[in-house]
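debug: dumping io for the single-chain case to check the tokenizer round-trip. Nothing else runs in this session.
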Amino acid sequence: MSRKQKNVLIRIIVSAVLLIGLLITERFADISNAYLRLVLYLIPYLIIGYDILKKAFKGIIHGQVFDENFLMAVASVGAIAIAVYENGSYSEACAVILFYQIGELFQSYAVGKSRRNIAQLMDIRPDYANIEKDGEIVQVSPDEVSVGSVIVVCPGEKIPIDGVVIDGNTTLDTAALTGESVPRSVKVGDDVISGCINLSGTVRIRTVKEFGESTVSKILNLVENSSSKKSKSEQFISKFARYYTPVVCGGALALALIPPIVRLISGVDAMWGDWIYRALTFLVISCPCALVISIPLSFFAGIGGASKEGVLVKGSNYLETLSKTKIIVFDKTGTMTKGVFEVVDTEPANGYTKDELIEYAALGESYSSHPISKSLKNAYGKDIDASLVKNVKEISGKGVLADVRGDSVAVGNAKLMTSQGVEFTPCEKIGTVVYVAVNRKYAGCIVIADSLKPTSVQAVKALRNCGVRKAVMLTGDSKKVADAVAKQLGTDEVYSELLPENKVEQVERLLGEKSENEKLAFVGDGINDAPVLSRADIGIAMGALGSDAAIEAADVVLMDDDPLKISKALKISRKCIRIVYENIGFALGIKALCLILGALGIANMWMAIFADVGVMVIAVLNAIRALSVKNL
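debug: decoded output
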């Protein structure tokens, strides 16, 4: 608890003890002096309610009359006035303020708990960066580190700026960014992002961005600015409260004046005290705290819970839109696939083994920097001994000829095999096929492809289970590859060989076909996806490896590039919106019922206290559930 919350708690306890003591005293002893009773009850009343009276008075002076402080002040002071007039009990007036303060304290604690969860994410902000100067490590502000500088990150420290490891290896805790608890191993040449915690070895990192452009800064900006983008539900509640409070104050005034005047005209007892009491009860019941507090808190908790899971939502308006998503459109490369070429299959022939086939191909391609050559060398997994390779000849558009350990080796496509007079078996598998011949004898083929991410197929199934009715894949890749990937994923439609503007056209078409209540989400990662991310109802970017342009254009960012998190984001948004609607329905329903009962004289001040404080506490408790997203 904060110091302010502790002070309020002490006041609540003192006031409650005094009030209970007075009630017990009155039960066993007759306090006949009306002024003495008034003074005794004013003590607990002022202890717990002086700040509400002060805020109400300031609101009147500044022209901001109709708020919950004004309603509580009028209701409690009015109840005291009626008690003085009728020589009745002062306990209800004290109880109104006491229970209202209890509800406020509970709400303050709940909001604080939600903010602390957000603060855990804010804890990724680095305090300093270590740079080397004259052989010594000096701590400087991350803002002072320029691009291309070398920083040193020791065990237990946060990586302050995005960069590339140039010395050392270690494991990183990425939980604050991605929500994943499994540490990630990094070595020389690996990209690292700011905000991760170094767990084991000391590493030297060459920075590739300024601090203001690094991942940690972008995340903090996204979360800090998310509250400024209000959802339609929040806008409705704000507008509703602005008109609702003056209306109910007018209704309470009418309830206090019109029935007694009508009774006077009719020649019967006006019963002023009874009708004023009903009007005061009406005011207490009408306080809109439950809605004004719980709805923004629900969205705040939903965004906070999503952030803990590595799903950054840029505002509650996007969370609300995401909940209505029925059509998902994917980019392929880097979104549903790894975006990295690798060996996915081998077919050795004529007595050669898989290892021999890979070795000949890797050595033959050892002098090339082509992505396919890199994938062959990665599959080989050993250091290349350049002395084993001689007479390398690259044939444009076909492949490479080289002498490997004295053997004549040909590595390339079908055209190379034909030109070398090698009899080979054409491979029909999907991907880039590399054929290998040794001494003009066919040794087999290697299939290289951009493979699916481990969770891609599961991600599409999970989206189906979330109520997504159509999954579409767009790609600039060839039709043959695109159709094969789409079949693996189980998408409804696939469009291939598209330029960036063609992707926008396809999304425009899908937007025109959907119903008004349905929303379309596009998921992408590359700079060429930025236009279509902006055009979709909701844009989702892969954040860890995605381009800065894609992240800027998107409304939701997945920090660990896992497509399975898309369904997680949908579930979080739908849970949050469900809680919002539950709170709106519950609060308005209970208040409407109690307002009617209060106007009819059936509901007393105690029921009014439940309709205000009780409903607020229940609504806030329900709102906090939006933080719990781990098991969705």
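debug: round-trip ok. The two ends are 30 Å apart (CA to CA).
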